Amino acid sequence: MEIDFAEQHDRLFAEAKQSGDHSAVTSHYYSVMSAVIDEYFGGNFHFAPPRKTSMTLEEALADLHRKIGERLGLKEGKSCADIGCGIGNSEFHRLGIQSKCRLIEGDCYNMPLEDNSKDAAYAVYSLKYFRELDSVMKEVSRILKPGGKFLVYDLIKTDKYDKKDPSHVEIIEGLEYACGMPSLHTCEELLSAASRHGLLLDEKEDLSLTNGSPFHFCFSHSPLFMWLVESAMISE
């Protein structure tokens, strides 16, 4: 029996909206997309506005990853947690650094990590999948050493979002549906949850303003990505 991906996604997303639990629809989304991400996007499926419009997606992401490392002060001997690493990264094996990394499957509301054990942590495109942020922030605060830094790079609703504007609502709800995730958090919601658990804002940056390109530039200018978005070939 063949079940259409979109049909099943519709059903699971509707159930998630009723129950508040998006785990099933998110898992269903990645059951198909993880293979696409690994095959066509090098294991990385987050947006990064390029500093130059001539930069490829790979170059823009490498630039972003260097920036993350610099902001967190990562170097040899530092211990850092990637909160929500997605499908992992086969590049670790190609580069021969897998011995320095541990892939841990666990509950981000109850991380299997020791107190005060990490110099830094980051969450890239993962907090958007959590309906409730306080439990995650509490755990991040617990595992960080005193003075440790936590960096978040994610999709959020900015101050420009107007819930009374149908075009704004359509874009946001379209993103939530496509990725099988709960309602996007606002910047204020994220910062408030962090501060309640001792994680105070050190710096905030909108890379689309810094780099002069929209956050989706590398994807929306990729013929391959746009073909995948518009393709009806995905089914189970």
TrEMBL record:
GO cellular component, as recorded: endoplasmic reticulum
Cross-referenced Pfam families: Methyltransf_11
Keywords carried by this UniProt record: Methyltransferase, S-adenosyl-L-methionine, Transferase
GO biological process: methylation; sterol biosynthetic process
The UniProt record lists the keyword Nucleus: no
GO molecular-function terms, A-Z: sterol 24-C-methyltransferase activity
Domain SAM-dependent methyltransferase Erg6/SMT-type: 86-236
CDD domains: AdoMet_MTases
Similarity remark: Belongs to the class I-like SAM-binding methyltransferase superfamily. Erg6/SMT family.
PANTHER family reported for this sequence: HYPOTHETICAL LOC100005854 (PTHR44068:SF1), ZGC:194242 (PTHR44068)
Protein name: SAM-dependent methyltransferase Erg6/SMT-type domain-containing protein
